[in-house]
């Protein structure tokens, strides 16, 4: 239903406008989900326990879709096992000038240069206070105007304000759309940032998992540094991967737009990063696999490569909520085999 009827209509319009239009539909016409989409699968065999949290199924929604925590309940109702909100920054910011979101239909991909547009952490907290039972990840970043040498303060502000309302944290230093942000992935500043957050975390009565989201464009040497950093800082795990700056093999009209590329062109590389981290660390920490998951087979490949959980973003936009159902159905089929 989604791919044959709904998607062709939505794809006729500007992608950012469509994004907020679908938010309005899901918010105000909840009955549409049961009419057009399969009923979410619920089965004990789909449950996963990862970094001390129990997930009702291993398929989550990646950050960037519900930046401001406006739709986590409705999105959970579509079948997601968890929803990651953000990236949130201490102060509201508009992000980069429009147009900043582009479909690459021939490549089943998206380029975005949103630039951490969000209403600020305080506004999101007010919405999260109404959460009843959705497992929430809080993806945090720094404001564009904050220099890198002061970035840790922005992450601390978001961490402290979100702490009572999220189940795990994700430190985002890998978006390509905030100037110089990826410099924070270098070993020294990243170790310092994560160490300070982890010290605050461990001082809490009940610490929460902190994960690091990394870029797919890191070299093997840099990935080995990531393994060392996880070991030194004792954070809970890694999300692999964010969007890529690569444009290799693209054929769509918008292929030369600046920003981060997501979708099918990222499938292979994100799985390679997952496998490298899992094998070279001897499975020392959990990995959430994200990047180019457009089918149940794509998700299983990432799980078999070493991921404990997976997340959807571009695949969700292209394939629809049916993809969540297909992945979980395939996992159950595998259990029975």
TrEMBL record:
Q: For this protein, what is the EC number?
A: 1.3.5.2
* One BP term from GO: 'de novo' pyrimidine nucleobase biosynthetic process
Indicate the enzyme's highest-level EC class.
oxidoreductase
How this chain sits in the membrane, per its record, is: Peripheral membrane protein
Which organism's genome codes for this protein?
Marnyiella aurantia
Chain's gene name: pyrD
Concerning its family, UniProt says: Belongs to the dihydroorotate dehydrogenase family. Type 2 subfamily.
A GO cellular component term found in this entry reads:
cytoplasm
Q: Which domain of life is it from?
A: Bacteria
Q: What is this protein called?
A: Dihydroorotate dehydrogenase (quinone)
């Amino acid at each position: 239903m989604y791919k044959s009827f709904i998607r062709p209509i939505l794809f006729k319009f500007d992608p950012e406008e469509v994004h907020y239009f679908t938010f309005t539909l899901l918010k105000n016409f909840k009955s549409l989900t049961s009419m057009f989409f399969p009923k979410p699968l619920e089965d004990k065999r789909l449950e996963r326990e990862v970094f001390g949290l129990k997930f009702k199924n291993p398929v989550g929604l990646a950050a960037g879709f519900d930046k401001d925590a406006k739709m986590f309940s409705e999105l959970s109702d579509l079948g997601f096992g968890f929803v990651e909100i953000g990236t949130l920054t201490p102060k509201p910011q508009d992000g980069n000038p429009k147009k900043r979101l582009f479909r690459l239909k021939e490549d089943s991909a998206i380029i975005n240069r949103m630039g951490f547009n969000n209403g600020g952490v305080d506004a999101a907290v007010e919405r999260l206070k109404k959460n009843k039972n959705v497992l929430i990840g809080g993806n945090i970043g720094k404001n564009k105007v904050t220099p890198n040498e002061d970035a840790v303060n922005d992450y601390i502000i978001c961490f402290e304000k979100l702490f009572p309302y999220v189940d795990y944290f994700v430190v985002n230093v890998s978006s390509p759309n905030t100037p110089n942000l990826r410099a924070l992935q270098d070993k020294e500043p990243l170790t310092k940032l994560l160490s300070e957050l982890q010290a605050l975390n461990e001082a809490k009565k009940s610490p929460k998992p902190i994960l690091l989201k990394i870029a797919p464009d890191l070299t093997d040497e840099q990935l080995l540094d990531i393994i060392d950093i996880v070991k030194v800082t004792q954070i809970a795990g890694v999300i692999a991967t964010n969007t890529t700056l690569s444009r290799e093999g693209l054929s769509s009209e918008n292929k030369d737009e600046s920003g981060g590329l997501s979708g099918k062109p990222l499938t292979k590389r994100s799985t390679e990063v997952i496998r490298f981290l899992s094998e070279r660390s001897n499975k020392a920490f959990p990995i959430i696999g994200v990047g180019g998951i457009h089918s149940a087979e794509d998700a299983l490949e990432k799980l078999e490569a070493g991921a404990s959980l997976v997340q959807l973003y571009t695949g969700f936009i292209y394939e629809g909520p049916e993809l969540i159902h297909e992945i979980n159905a395939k996992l159950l089929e595998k259990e029975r085999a």
